[in-house]
Amino acid sequence: MSNSKLTIKDAHINWECEGKFNFTTGFGATKAESIIANYAAFIAPVILYFFAWQQLEWSWLQIVVAAALTLDMIGGVLSNSLGSMKRFLHTDQSLELTILGKLVGSKFLFPAIHFQLFAVPLCFDITWSYAFFWYAMMMGSIVLLHFVPMYLHRPIALLIVMLSIILATLIPAPVGLEWLAPIFMIKLVLSHGVREEPYRPTLTE
Predict the structure, then answer these.
(1) Rounded to whole angstroms, what are the CA distances from 128 to 43, 68, 192?
(2) Neighbour count for residue 72 (Cβ, 10 Å)
(3) Which of 17, 95, 102, 161 falls 20 to 30 Å from 52 in CA-CA distance?
(4) How far is CA 100 from CA 18, 36, 73, 113, in A?
(5) Which run of H or E residues covers position 199?
(6) Given this model, what pLDDT does residue 135 score?
(7) Those residues with Cβ within 8 angstroms of residue 175's Cβ, 6 or more apart along the chain or in another chain
């Protein structure tokens, strides 16, 4: 049994990145993983529109921006948490990648280019300190995460996420998007940053 293919209690762990890299699913995605990564997030803006955003008298521009941010954040959490994406993000395998693939796999550069929250003060009634605070917290958390032993990554990332949820209720946030910043933290600190085993439904020989 190779180190890249293990079966533990019928759970098939496979670190081998085979085939072509996909931006939303990494390597070796199943049909179910592809559906989750590419379509599941569309449920969120629909629910938010009919149960929250309609009542806020937003302009169509604000609705479009809110929907785009929702898709990006929730879609990113789901995509980065897939076994097929974890296989890519945390592999030790030497891979030939495009510039886009190298960017997605970067532990620091990929989070650093996530400026989406700066669209919030541009389009909604909130100060610029909102975007600066959460961006700085995210980058600080990423740096902290990679300076502690790997066995502490998951609990520290979860601690950061829980603190983010608490802080989101204590500091100003745009009405209708109060949940956005914690999901931003989940996407990049927990979902992208924490190494977890990439499972497959069946063992590939």
Answers:
(1) 29, 19, 25
(2) 17
(3) 161
(4) 17, 21, 19, 12
(5) strand 199-200
(6) 98
(7) 56, 125
Rg (CA), the chain: 18
Give percent of the chain with pLDDT exceeding 90: 85
Closest CA to 48 of 32, 66, 60: 66
pLDDT over 90 at 12, yes or no? no
Per-residue pLDDT tens over the stretch 53-92? 999 999 999 999 999 999 999 999 999 999 999 999 999 8
Alpha-carbon distance of 3 to 119, in angstroms, equals 44
Q: Provide φ and ψ at 14, rounded to 5°.
A: -135, 115
Q: Are 111 and 188 in contact (CB under 8 A)?
A: yes
Distance CA 141, CA 189 (A): 7
CA distance 163 to 106: 25
